[in-house]
Amino acid sequence: MQQYRMYIDGRWVESLSGEWFESSNPYTGLPWARIPRGNGADVDCAVAAAARALQDPAWRGLTASGRGELLRRLGDALADRADFLAGIEVRDNGKLYAEMRAQTHYLRQWYYYYGGLADKIEGAVIPTDKAGHFNYTRHEPVGVVAAIIPWNSPLLLASWKLAPALAAGNTVVFKPSEYTSASLLEFARIVERVGFPPGVLNVVTGFGAEVGAPLVEHPQVAKVAFTGSDQTGRQIYQAAARGMKRVTMELGGKSPNIVFADARQDNAVKGVISGIFAASGQTCVAGSRLLVQRAIHDEFVDKLLAFARHARLGDPMSPDTQVGPVTNLPQLEKILGYIDIARAEGADCLLGGGRPDTPGLEQGWFVEPTIFAGVHNRMRIAREEVFGPVLSIIPFEDEEEAVAIANDSPYGLAAGIWTEDLRRALTLPDRLEAGTVWVNTYRTMSYLTPFGGFKQSGLGKESGQDSLREYLKVKSVWLSTTEDVPDPFVIR
């Protein structure tokens, strides 16, 4: 069994308690790695290292162009190790190798992009109405950043945080999911080889109550960047508020994927499949509510079922596999629980609805691609995030009803629209309460484009230039050019 160590202050260390926990392969259900079980004492060491690095001339004295050069070198190094990192992620989270390989090969772009932006962080000279005064602004790093990432796409979501944070001059302490810590520790090896100063990046592994909570509450942490469930997000937001910390939060979703009667149905079917069964439905943007116009409802559902029932479950490392296992046993039980809830609510299970009986999959944490019809928007299956391969079909009559159903949700992360009507394609996104709206596509993302949700789906943006601003604070500087100080008892 492979044994890992945490990365703190440029050193590979065991937890101060000497405790470990196991990480399991979702395909086999068997443990494959031992991970240090950190606690508050390890958090203290990591945050102290990050705080020192923030003031160390090796990092603080580095020019913005120098930071950008390090980030670009990191991008090159990631490209060289992309296949290896993809294999680690598959072993840890069970996603398809084809998907994880596409992600790990794309990671470099975040470091190239923010490496290029690092020396484009500019203040301004402010025209002032105060005679004899000169005013300018400068943008500075916020400080030590606590970055907490989930288990579904660890390296991708870590890069969304790390690249802009480092470009802005911050230092970072990562807490990966206890289910998928290995890939971020392997990533830290690459950061070390590239030559970032000690303490700029730190990784503390462990459980939420033992590592996540003390990290969020640490007085030297200035900002928390979190991706995960809305329940955990609310707890982190409350803790961060007590310390007046900045937050960026990308939380859950219950995204509507809306198919109109004029849509190209074959393309829409593929878009629906991509939205809910790719990555076994373990994506925050999962199009888990399928809204279908009544005029084509039966026809479209038949096409969808014909496509979905042939989805191939199997070894995520195999190029023939289309649906892999879910990442961990608690998530498997949660998904199966929601399937039971849907049946109890009266939804009609058209496909799947349990664990597969396919030979060779018995030990893995698999759930069949599952489709429910007869769903209305007040059911729990239509309102709560399942985070698995479970689709709810809801019919609608016209555009007004589609918008009403789509927006009737506590979430607002993403939405999809399938239509050939140009007017609708241009105007409907304005009416949908979602941070990302896709038209005739789904799950398309780029380092160039801001990503983040509305309502209970989060705060702030990741990727694009908007993300860089999340890791900067603005300072205003006044200079007097007058020879004499005026009346000190009167505001100037």
Task: Explain what this protein looks like in three dimensions.
This protein has helices at 40-55, 57-60, 64-80, 82-93, 97-106, 108-117, 154-167, 182-194, 208-217, 230-242, 265-276, 297-308, 329-344, 380-383, 399-407, 422-431, 464-469; strands at 2-3, 6-8, 11-13, 20-25, 30-36, 124-126, 133-141, 144-148, 171-175, 201-203, 221-227, 246-250, 256-259, 289-293, 348-351, 370-373, 390-396, 411-412, 414-418, 436-439, 454-455, 458-459, 472-480. The protein has 492 residues and is an alpha/beta fold. The protein folds into two domains: 2-251 and 457-476, 3-Layer(aba) Sandwich (Aldehyde Dehydrogenase, Chain A, domain 1); 256-439, Aldehyde Dehydrogenase, Chain A, domain 2. The model has no long low-confidence stretch (mean pLDDT 97).
CATH topology of the largest domain: Aldehyde Dehydrogenase, Chain A, domain 1
Compute the separation of the termini in Å: 69 Å
The biggest sheet amounts to:
7 strands, mixed
Structural class: alpha/beta
Mean pLDDT: 97
- Count of domain modules: 2
Rounded to an integer in angstroms, the radius of gyration calculated over CA atoms is: 24 Å
Number of helices: 17
**Which percent range describes the beta-strand content?**
15-25%
**At the fourth CATH level, what is the homologous superfamily of the largest domain?**
Aldehyde Dehydrogenase, Chain A, domain 1
Low-confidence stretches: none
> Any guess at the CATH architecture of the largest domain?
3-Layer(aba) Sandwich
Question: What's the arrangement of strands in the largest beta sheet?
Answer: 15-16-17-14-13-19-20
CATH class of the largest domain: Alpha Beta
Shape: globular
Helix content: 25-40%
InterPro entries: Ald_DH/histidinol_DH, Ald_DH_C, Ald_DH_CS_CYS, Ald_DH_CS_GLU, Ald_DH_N, Aldehyde_DH_dom
Family: Belongs to the aldehyde dehydrogenase family.
GO molecular function: oxidoreductase activity, acting on the aldehyde or oxo group of donors, NAD or NADP as acceptor
Protein name: Carnitine dehydratase
